[in-house]
């Protein structure tokens, strides 16, 4: 199973564009910061991840306020067939009430 869910803010977002096949798509960078427990020890977890919203979700994602906190659900995949870089594909997201990142 390849499913990832986390809370992050939208740090950067490109304009909505269309693939040659006509599918709407938006590229972005998401930032996450949280406190996690590992082996009984508190650990700060921070990362930035490249993300993409394609299809129906792209319109709603392109209108979401930058720096807003959201819970994202999606999956990881290679950036392209020959790449080793990963991209988070957004399947759904919802606003998170005031919380610190």
Strand content: over 45%
CATH architecture: Beta Barrel
Tally of contiguous helical segments: 1
Average predicted local confidence, pLDDT: 94
The strand line-up of the biggest sheet is: 1-3-4-6-5
Distance between the termini: 27 Å
CATH homology group:
Nucleic acid-binding proteins
C-alpha Rg (nearest Å): 14 Å
Q: Which outline best applies?
A: globular
Description:
The chain is built from one helix and six strands; from the N terminus they run ββββαββ. It is mainly β. It has a single domain, classed as Nucleic acid-binding proteins (OB fold (Dihydrolipoamide Acetyltransferase, E2P), Beta Barrel). A five-stranded mixed barrel has the order 1-3-4-6-5. Strand 3 and strand 4 form a beta hairpin. The two termini are 27 Å apart.
What's the layout of helices and strands?
Blueprint: E1 4-13, E2 17-18, E3 24-38, E4 41-54, H1 56-63, E5 69-78, E6 86-95
Parallel strand pairs: 4-6
Antiparallel strand pairs: 1-3, 1-5, 2-3, 3-4, 5-6
Features:
1 helix; five-stranded mixed beta barrel; globular; 101 residues; single chain
Care to give the gist of this entry?
By secondary structure, this protein is mainly beta. It has one helix at residues 56-63; strands at residues 4-13, 17-18, 24-38, 41-54, 69-78, 86-95.
